[in-house]
Amino acid sequence: MSTGLIWFENNLRVKDNEALFKACENHESVIAIYCFDPRKFKETTYGFPKTGKFRAQFLIESVIQLQQNLAELNISFLTFHKKPEEIIPEIVEDHQIEAIYFQEEWTSEEKQLIDALKNKLQNIDFRSFYTQFLFHPEDIPYDDFSKIPKVYTEFRKKCEKYVDVRDEIEIPQQKPESNLLKNTSKIPNLEDLGLENFEQDPRTAFPFKGGEDEAWKRIKHYFWKTKNLAEYKQTRNGLLGKDYSSKLSAWLANGSISAVSIYHEIKKFEQEIIKNQDTYWLIFELIWRDFFKYISLKHGNSIFFLSGILNKELDWNFSKEKLQSWIDGETKEDFVNANMKEIAVTGFMSNRGRQNVNSFWAKELKQDWRAGAAYFESVLIDYDVHSNWGNWMYNSGVGNDPRDRKFNIKKQAERYDPNNEYIDTWLKN
To answer: For the Photolyase/cryptochrome alpha/beta domain, which residue ranges apply (predicted)?
Structure first.
């Protein structure tokens, strides 16, 4: 009897998951695994953990829910607080695994890990799938990633013209009960990962839990119950409350839901409720997410270099004191401070806020933009490697912004927080 292993990473879902579907299709027996890699929770050179408590908690919730959803398919889900290249070879040997199915990754750390595994398991078939995109890499109108344009608008227009978003891949058929193993593996808690427990702050704009079912609950609420999707473009620059934007980013980031699924749900909404500039704008933002993924495919590790993808030498500085006062929300700008207080206690910040605190750090203080990006990587619930580093480059003058803008923070605060409601929420309470 042939056995396949599904190695889950940032694709923590059963719906529209090609790796899962193909493994179930190709093998009578299927086992799933997720590794809480200790390296992802270690302290960075800046002194904060690579994955902080907010995203770690969201991840734990997502993994718990995936375990339940896989159990309904009679698939055992093994979870370990170990390095994948240490535990996966053991699982392969113990269960006579023939093939490993996983989501394709290409940034340096992920690539090194995949290479290390392939090196240890040279007789195993590795099958990877590009499943974090809206526009599949095989479908885009560029025959080579090196031809991806510098500017978003050009990429968007060409893809919209020539690419059809693929259909969702259905949930695989249930396996027989004989597929289940005796599973003694354990899902770690925050303390196991070296992080502290926390109570959710009542002011948070992201009062949500991790997991595939939770992602679909959010869609049900934001699209179908409140119909807020129909006003998305008008409200998306909001700062307070849970419904000014879709808030789907965290589930997208760890793959609890796919961009393809969200796209098809938007199309359904447009058919059944209303199609307008607002509904389109959520697709527009999904294409931005794709764009940054393609930029990292094109440029590789340059997205982590100080000079960015432009290879631009600017007058960068780095002061630990300035980093700490920026993190603590103790700068000269109240709007920056309010946003930094919000992210510190909730793990979330609006898109408008992110652009402003980034611009202030990199263009006003002229500090090494990578320190800011690394802090976001630590605290954000919705950290996505390509979006985070792509946006930080963009707003720091070393990325894809054709106009190289610097934000006027005071004007931004007047425009988006005219009554100081947001600033008061975070600086007075």
So the answer is: 2-134
